[in-house]
């Protein structure tokens, strides 16, 4: 590995599932890596949790072990703080890290609502630090290729519709009280947890504009609630300038896979995206209409290199942004996070989902 590539020393906040996935990808052995990632510091609600996490997930590193998040924010050797806590804690975690002058990569959904996101970005601007919502899907090389095929090469003619569903069966009544899926005050509900992926697929496949100049679609939404939380969302997304529509759904009531995970319809064909879930796409296939306009060709499959689970693309881009002195990601700029949060606020308003934080 070349020694003059940028290095990013990460401080990991919390030791749950997503932090373990993220760290697993950071420490992958990559001979052709364009960035060197170092797990510098781990912060958890207890020293024991931080220690167990380091032992299990980064056995070849020797990160600083901390029984609080504050010690990570205060560590002068940390270049970027990764926040992997439930959504309801993101605002506080971001504000605390920013107050300590740290750059931040914070898991999706960025915050509970747009007002919280605004507060975080205002603080980041004042402190002149980098902040980035970790919507890792947008960083996958597959996305740039798909958008090029749809809107530069027009391989399926005029795009007019897409559909995407995210399912994940959650047994809410039997979860512990501390679970992020259980209570609105912890940000429970499908939209912010998984519905944000179909929504992102809609933005990426229906709007050719770059994320800092994205068109705001209209949304028509319905949501279902059980056990006091939103368990199913259905949203119709429509772009005023083109009439393009997205039919997007998410549910915590089923584990039945939907394949393809996303389908994009054009006047001269369609694209099927295949993978485990909308957060984990593997490849896509372009099917072109035959001359009869009724049938389709056998399809051209576009495959992509798999590196771990795929977090490395956003991690590399974050490290490169910070090394270049940028304060925002061009792939997920602040303006785009605000737009996504505002649209999710609107969907929740129509669907009747409120969080206690909406009234603070
Ligand atoms: N990018 C993706 O594909 C993806 C996938 C899953 C989740 N996520 C996002 O990642 C975030 C965390 O998800 P997760 O499934 O990893 O969460 P999790 O395992 O339930 O919790 C992560 C950590 O947050 C802290 N925590 C959890 N519940 C808490 C509570 N009630 N009170 C105080 N602290 C609590 C704990 O930190 P300590 O370790 O410090 O005790 C816990 O280890 C969410 O924002 C979610 O949307 C992203």
Automatic annotation (TrEMBL):
Q: Which GO terms describe its molecular function?
A: D-xylose 1-dehydrogenase (NADP+) activity; nucleotide binding
Lineage, highest ranks first? Eukaryota, Fungi, Dikarya, Ascomycota, Pezizomycotina
Q: What is this protein called?
A: D-xylose 1-dehydrogenase (NADP(+), D-xylono-1,5-lactone-forming)
Q: Does the keyword Oxidoreductase apply?
A: yes
By its UniProt entry, which Pfam families does this protein fall under? GFO_IDH_MocA (PF01408), GFO_IDH_MocA_C3 (PF22725)
Per the UniProt record, the source organism is Exophiala viscosa
GFO/IDH/MocA-like oxidoreductase domain ranges (all copies):
145-271
Which family is it part of? Belongs to the Gfo/Idh/MocA family.
The protein's UniProt keywords, in alphabetical order, are: Oxidoreductase
Keyword Protein biosynthesis listed: no
């Amino acid at each position: 590995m070349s020694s003059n590539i940028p290095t990013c020393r990460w401080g990991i906040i919390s030791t749950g599932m997503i932090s373990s996935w993220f760290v697993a990808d950071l420490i992958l052995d990559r001979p052709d890596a364009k960035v060197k990632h170092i797990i510098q510091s781990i912060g958890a609600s207890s020293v024991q949790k931080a220690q167990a996490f380091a032992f299990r997930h980064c056995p070849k590193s020797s990160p600083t072990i901390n029984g609080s998040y504050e010690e990570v924010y205060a560590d002068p050797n940390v270049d970027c703080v990764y926040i992997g806590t439930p959504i309801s804690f993101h605002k506080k975690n971001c504000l605390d890290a920013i107050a300590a002058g740290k750059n931040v990569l914070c898991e999706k959904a960025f915050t509970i609502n747009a007002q919280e996101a605004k507060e975080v970005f205002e603080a980041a601007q004042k402190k002149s630090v980098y902040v980035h919502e970790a919507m890792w899907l947008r960083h996958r090389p597959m996305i740039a290729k798909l958008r090029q095929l749809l809107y530069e090469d027009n391989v399926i003619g005029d795009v007019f519709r897409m559909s995407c569903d995210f399912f994940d069966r959650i047994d809410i009544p039997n979860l512990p009280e501390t679970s992020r899926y259980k209570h609105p005050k912890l940000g429970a509900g499908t939209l912010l947890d998984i519905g944000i992926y179909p929504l992102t697929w809609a933005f990426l496949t229906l709007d050719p504009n770059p994320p800092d100049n994205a068109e705001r679609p209209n949304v028509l939404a319905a949501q279902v609630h059980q056990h006091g939380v939103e368990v199913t969302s259905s949203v119709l997304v429509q772009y005023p300038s083109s009439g393009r529509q997205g039919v997007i759904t998410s549910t915590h009531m089923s584990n039945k896979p939907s394949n393809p995970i996303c389908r994009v319809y054009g006047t001269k064909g369609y694209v099927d995206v295949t993978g485990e879930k909308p957060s984990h796409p593997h490849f896509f296939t372009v099917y072109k209409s035959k001359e009869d306009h009724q049938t389709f060709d056998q399809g051209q499959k576009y495959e992509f290199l798999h590196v771990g689970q795929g977090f490395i693309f956003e991690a590399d881009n974050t490290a490169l942004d910070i090394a270049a002195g940028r304060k925002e990601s061009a792939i997920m700029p602040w303006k785009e996070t605000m737009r996504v949060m505002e649209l999710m606020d609107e969907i929740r308003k129509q669907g009747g989902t409120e969080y206690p934080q909406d009234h603070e």
